[in-house]
């Protein structure tokens, strides 16, 4: 009940231009484990250190179950961290969650609209829940309906919306009070490609309006195309942070994909090819891909290809295809964690 | 002030949602209607020890108990709607706003009060042709008692729903609590028929006093001790239930 007085704290001026809009230090959360035998706990988040600059789209990339949503829910004041510290838009997460609430917007993965009411009704209520007066709430609703392109269906019940329409409304609800930071949990899960790119456009538009956007995703292309900077999370901890370009540059060299002949004994052939290539001096790392493919990380792709072809031919294995690629974010993930994100 | 504003905000939205899906009125009224039509007539000989000699007098005793049980059961089962809203993320969306946590609870409980009172009015009206007679002031006091009962039982139900957050577990838990409450309040059969030990046990059931108060009001005995006693007991329990549920709500639904 003490929490009901949160918003009676006098409104503090929003920090004019703080460089780091989100800063976390060792944020962690554990849950009691389900096993009855011991009073053990499961570490959902083991210690997250992040710095998100004002006005950037920050991506939080990791496989399902890595701790993305738990971290996001901690930052959005929905669950209390067990330890660590965080400042969001100038307010302290642990000592002043009420002020954090006023400065952030949060859109959960599943949204949170009622089926029987319309977008307009939800937008007005949302604004009113932030303490905004009736006429101002109506004005903001009209603005949001226009800018998020909701006009066509704004008075129909939410139950009739398509996935993309619903998502646009969810985001409009998240920013109706003009927050400094918007948190989005997997904003494009389950959307078709056109709706997906429309959501990306909305997020980019919010950034041009000066908003800082924190988005979790397990899509590599989303992190790559949408985000200015990303942090990679695995097993409840951050394993890398930087711009997608920086991170990819860390993976020195190129990726060569070798496709062997399909058909009987393909698995055996790719095993033999892997054994033959492992000793090569130019090879950093080798991964088997499917039954008939190899993924090679090499210093210089153009120079390595003739050499590896010779080696394979010497072993009596003629490759069907050879491809040269620049490293992707998945390669970054693979290098840091030893696993591929695509398998998830 | 903020609490009142936020509660009103949540309450208005809940009323709107209820008005959009009016099936609940029918569902809530049909079952008590069956009891009114198919069960109450059996009770004339049973209620004889309580002074009923005609069908009209039987309804005079039976209807207030029926209304009480309608509100008690209706309130205790309202936790299901909270589970639905938790699942749909509606509660979570409210929680990231600075809206008062207590208002999220009170706005919903008050919606339930309105819903149950509407049903109680309908049942009262339907009972009039059977010879039910009640003075307006007595009736209004009886509705006040019902409103408190509804607020109390829905607060309890929200608390239980937060402790047992699963549809399949909530129903048996609520039934297990509601059955002895109903049996020991003398709504189905009068406790005047009961052996002494059962009557003694009933005196520890606050809902027994609520039903006694309802019956006194419907008999026109405004000055009966049962009236003020029931209002006092139910009001105290309502405060306790809301307090308990609000604490649970603010710790589990932060």
Describe the structure.
Chain A has helices spanning 68-75, 97-103, 119-129, 134-147, 163-174, 193-208, 220-226, 244-250, 266-277, 301-314, 329-337; strands at residues 20-32, 41-53, 57-61, 83-88, 91-92, 104-107, 181-185, 212-217, 229-234, 237-242, 254-259, 283-289, 293-298, 321-325. Chain A has 344 residues and is of the alpha/beta class. Chain A folds into two domains: 2-247, 3-Layer(aba) Sandwich (Rossmann fold); 252-326, Alpha-Beta Plaits (2-Layer Sandwich), CATH 3.30.70.100. In chain A, the strands form three sheets. Chain A has a six-stranded mixed beta sheet with strand order 6-7-8-3-9-10, with helices on both faces. In chain A, strands 2-1-4-5 form a four-stranded antiparallel beta sheet, with helices on one face. A four-stranded antiparallel beta sheet of chain A has the order 12-13-11-14, covered by helices on one side. The A-B interface holds A 1-8, 76-80, 98, 101-102, 104-106, 108, 110-117, 121, 125-126, 128-131, 157, 173, 177 and B 2-3, 6, 9, 13, 16-17, 20-21, 85, 88-90, 92-103, 246-247, 250, 254.
